[in-house]
Amino acid sequence: MNQRVNKYNQPIGEELPGWQKRKIPSNMYYVGKYTIVTRLSRTHTKELYNAYKNSHPSNWTYLPDEPPHNYEVFEQTLLEKIESSTHIYYAVLNKETNKPLGIFSLMRIDQANGVIEVGNINFSDAIKRTRMSTEAHYLLAMYVFEELQYRRYEWKCDSLNAPSIQTAKRLGFKYEGTFRNAVIYKNRSRNTSWFSMLIEEWPLHKQALTQWLTEENFDDKGVQVQRLEAFKQ
Prior knowledge:
eight-stranded mixed β-sheet; protein N-terminal-serine acetyltransferase activity; transferase; 5 helices; alpha+beta
């Protein structure tokens, strides 16, 4: 494909005729094979507290929050998330029990440019490293790309957060670089690693995720037969 140039013979980007700013994320209720993703609400508070109470405190190392020790404090923190004007939070539910096992949010919402970030990912031990966790990200990405039609989906994390980096790459996000001294949280400095997925890349990742999530890809103990990477080859 030839590079587009303007009348001054300068290279310019692809034209986007008819582009319109994207909608703000809102209520959604997406049902997968194992998981439900829906807008976070007060009804999720008690079950989330129980799920987090039974999770290892190391899960909060790279989060701005601390592990919950008091229900009233946790309830207030969750209420602030629900009422946030900048972050739209969603709960991840076990489809069999309808109980919430974690949350994540859509944030840094740039409607004009069609850019959005997934963040504040806090999955309890009951969902971590399970097909429910992968499917939750699959459902949220489907919402971002197919319903909201955003063109760039971002993932950012502490550059020392190896599990988050591994998850981002596994799902198909591409590493773009590290912003040094980008954030201060919990009285310590953070270098932030940036990843992204583009709307034109989504169909390939969706196909791989769909194949990986089939029941045939798991044994009777829920262990995967083939890794997700195998479906991208």
